Amino acid sequence: MLSPQSLTEDDRRLVARWAADSAERVLAVFEAEAPDDARPREGIARARCFARGEVDAASQIRLRFVAGRGARSASSAAGAAAARAAGQASGVAHMGAHALGAAAYAARAAELVAPGHGAAAELDWQLERIDDPVRAALRRLPPLGTDRSGPLGAGLLATGALGAHIGRIQAALAQ
């Protein structure tokens, strides 16, 4: 049985576009630090290709961690978070819950660049861009920390700033 965090392929295609948009917003932070490392940009491009139906999920599974590995090339925590946002976006083809990871890492990068208001502004932007089909798909994900079968389980995305960002998104989706 698939994890409830997987979502259907149609739902993953919907949320992949939103995840790619979220990750792309902070990509410049990473690229300013590592202009020769194209992995995050390529990961976002793969997420967009998946969203458009140009590639299938199976072809993307082995590539899902490549974009996030760009974090090693970053010289700051903000740059690393931006690369991880791209990695999460490229992972949506495999599991829909990674869309929330992309949004959370993008908010983390924004907060590190603009302490005290960056995350809130980024989350506001992300929430404004959730259309009804994406909202419906994201609502099908289990609440943060309630299902251990994916990235929304008890791991890194469920704790600290990342968990708080995902919690804010899920609370907004519930309204």
Describe the protein's architecture and organization:
Helix 4 packs antiparallel against helix 5 (98-113). 61% of the residues lie in helices and 0% in strands. It has 175 residues and is mainly α.
Briefly summarize what is shown.
Helix content is 61%, strand content 0%. It has one domain. With 175 residues, it is mostly helical.
Number of strands: 0
How much helix is in the residues? Answer: 55-70%
Q: SSE string, helix = H, strand = E? A: HHHHHHHH
Low-pLDDT segments, ≥5 res = none
User: Average pLDDT across residues?
Assistant: 95
Largest sheet: none
Number of helices: 8
- How many domain modules? 1
Shape field: globular
